[in-house]
Design a protein that fits this description.
single chain, alpha/beta, five-stranded parallel beta sheet, two-stranded antiparallel sheet
Length: about 375
């Protein structure tokens, strides 16, 4: 089964389990259950439970058997988001395009819904199948440490206390590791425990989690207005066979990235690839347009090809992209190329070229390029 399909199945299974656990709560608590369902139905990438299921599978356990543990982890994450949104914390009125609980209901309901997810998590983790009692105890211990005063809560406290302060790199990394990284790390650790992973497997997966958690929080904190989907940018020249596989891979990544992206204040663009091949540029563009991104990037140009080939690449991509959305040409900064791109309908550009040549004393001016290291500029 392809990873894409497997992730879809896991996502469905996680959401169904979360809703089933809420449904089994006492019937007289309809307001509380409604508030909890509002959060679950609000969507989310379910990154942490998916990492747990994946690490368990790698370690030799059945993902279906450890689904309760994965959902327990998501409940902890969900409770933290509910409390983060409260007026006393981040005071957010919207999350994933929907009103937060304290706005839709009231502050007390939001606090209690978060508390309900927190406590239900430890009931649910004990329902994990085909895992020894001793390993369940280990998972409970790991989860409580990662989410408590030694982990996520510690990171949140440091984050609040450091507002308006200038932090050292070490202090910033500590906040990121504890606030976000610990729950990502524990997803891997719990999966390894469930599958009795070898020491070597455990180390590789933990190294991945430590780096991933830090990178995840840094990217989130940067909060760029526009971000790009992951893509592969093959070299020039490249065979049609390899380029086709690369385009298909980039399309799969675009779908995954779009499914995971949940920030209303940030636009995610898809990247059109296909090299010099007109049919592949058409394929790439049309598949991305089906996904209805807020903007589209043209990638894979300025990688060593002749100018006439680059302009043909732009032509072959841009004609399939909607005119009412931004069209962005990546990595092109030569002034002549900017003009050629604009003539062809490109709206946005970026490139390191101006700063790269400036480091060597060259300036781009309306008189052309000049080198201020020349003797005539010495005085």
């Amino acid at each position: 089964m392809e990873n894409n399909q497997l992730m879809k199945e896991w996502l469905i299974a996680i959401d169904q389990y979360l809703l089933a656990m809420i449904d089994q709560l006492p019937s007289h608590q309809e307001k509380l259950k409604s508030a909890m369902k509002h959060v679950v139905n609000g969507g989310g990438k379910r990154l942490r439970p998916m990492l747990l299921l994946a690490s368990a599978q790698i370690s030799g356990a059945s993902p279906n058997d450890v689904l309760p543990a994965a959902c327990a982890l998501e409940m902890i994450h969900t409770y933290s988001l509910i409390h983060d949104d409260l007026p006393g914390m981040d005071d957010d009125s919207m999350r994933r395009g929907k009103p937060t609980i304290h706005v839709l209901y009231d502050e007390a309901t939001a606090i209690l819904a978060g508390d309900a997810f927190l406590t239900l998590a430890f009931e649910v983790i004990c329902q994990t199948k085909a895992v020894s009692s001793s390993n369940i105890v280990k998972m409970v211990q790991l989860l409580s440490q990662a989410s408590g005063a030694s982990g996520m809560i510690a990171g949140q406290m440091l984050d609040i206390d450091s507002e308006e302060m200038i932090l050292t790199l070490e202090e910033l990394q500590r906040i990121h590791q504890e606030k976000t990284g610990k729950l990502i790390l524990v997803a891997i650790q719990m999966g390894c425990v469930a599958g009795n992973a070898s020491e070597a497997t455990n180390k590789v997966l933990e190294d991945f989690a430590n780096h991933y958690g830090l990178a995840f929080q840094i990217q989130n904190d940067l909060g760029a207005d526009i971000i790009m989907s992951f893509d592969e940018c093959p070299p020039y020249p490249c065979t049609h066979d390899y380029m086709k596989k690369s385009v298909e891979r980039t399309i799969r990544w675009a779908k995954r990235g779009q499914a995971a992206h949940n920030r209303d204040d940030q636009a995610l663009f898809g990247i059109v690839q296909g090299g010099e091949y007109e049919d592949l540029r058409e394929l790439s563009a049309k598949e991305l347009v089906k996904l209805d991104f807020p903007g589209y990037s043209i990638g894979g140009t300025s990688v060593g090809e002749p100018k006439e080939v680059m302009y043909k690449m732009i032509d072959n991509a841009i004609k399939w992209l909607p005119e009412d959305k931004p069209r962005y040409l990546m990595g092109v900064g030569n002034p002549i190329d900017l003009i050629e791109g604009a003539i062809r309908g490109v709206d946005m550009f970026d490139c390191v070229l101006p700063t790269r040549v400036a480091r060597h004393g060259a300036l781009m001016t309306h008189h052309g390029r000049m080198n201020i290291n020349n003797e005539k500029f010495s005085n």
